[in-house]
């Protein structure tokens, strides 16, 4: 009797909760698809016959300079995590394979770089960037995104490389390979799965960043996507809400698709991967 | 005796490992350093140096122009006397309590209900979509839903429920509570996912044995699953705790900490003081305070969890 009730009750509760969870998504999609002229703020639940989603996305793309922001953010979220993963793998290799002296100390030092809140470094970065004339430059944004994603990359890469038997290294040395070659031709190819998992996590982190963009950039060309969306909201939140919503939908699609298609890697990596 | 003494040095070449390892370590010393240097350099220059600088600036008066002048603990004294800071501290506390209770317990509920169920992962999908969305996008969506007379108010009105006239994002502490709701909407899915992984790693045998003893439903969960999930719960709550102290994006998009700074948290106050009012010293003091609180909270929490785990 109880198991019968449980068999019906469990999916029922999950279904109801799940539907509640989808309500904001429904409101977002329905209203982002309304033509600006037909949007009525007291009728947000009701879809209108016309489908103007792509017009609204195009509007957000052009009006808010999202086009520039998407280009910049693509560069940031590909190049910075790639650099971070490589630099992280390099120190992992130095510690694990080359047995860096006091390796554990250096590892803890690098990993400790993200245990404090971001707020601790914002002001000096801003002042220092202005001094060094890299404020509001793509180079400056790349540098900080690399630095901020590096500690976690170093953690995962060191742990992963630690799983490779040291005999691999010794055998390669016997064959006369240089350390540089061993790193690029043996250790990196052997750790592709870890490299990819860390890269995806970090790329998502960079894609979603607001705060660093807010502090270290200004112009349309440099400003990352989330910062651009925030200013779109501030400028058009009142008069052209459908454009803002379409923008919100646009910036979310890549990460949703990426996350859902790589859920397996994520769910394994997430234990460590939350910031 | 003497024969042994003579034999000893001859033995060394026959044991190549120790000697050659020493030699190898020596010959790779420089390449080990070369491989490790970039990481250390990047972290030192872009993370540690600013960290130290903020700490120093918090004891000075500085507005970005000229040079900082030493004022000792004045910034901290002013900070504790500032009513905005008190509000911010209170809101931060509400955030911490809200984020370690709501999304964690909902996540656990969803994980337990969907665990071992056919199509369980499909039932979890709606909760994962918000997690894949950025804090900014979550803020945009919920600000739209919660605006005066917006989606939520219209729904309450249509259902004949009270609260349709609420000014969700304008009145404190209501605005903080609804923003915690938005954060919970985003965070529940990942907690559910973590708990599902935890449930899957529980060994089958004790569960089967308990089943034979007639345990099921709530009792099974209370006495079997829950204790075994304990280490994972510690991690999930710990992560939520640290994350909640840093909350910025959702608040910045939904209320900007307002109106009148009444929905700020420490992370927002730091930004406000530093980049809006250009009081770098005061902003740095807030940053240092936030860091100290984060460390104390994390360490206290972990120590308590570890000590109770040992006694159980």
Automatic annotation (TrEMBL), chain B:
Residues 89-301 form the ABC transmembrane type-1 domain. SUPFAM superfamilies: MetI-like. Residues 1-22 are annotated as: Disordered. Keywords: Cell membrane, Membrane, Transmembrane, Transmembrane helix, Transport. It is found in: Cell membrane. It is a multi-pass membrane protein. It comes from the Bacteria. InterPro entries: ABC_transporter_permease (IPR051393), MetI-like (IPR000515), MetI-like_sf (IPR035906). PROSITE patterns: ABC_TM1. GO terms for biological process: transmembrane transport. CDD domains: TM_PBP2. GO terms for cellular component: plasma membrane. Its main location: membrane. The chain crosses the membrane at residues 30-53, 93-113, 125-145, 177-199, 229-255, 275-302. This is Sugar ABC transporter permease.
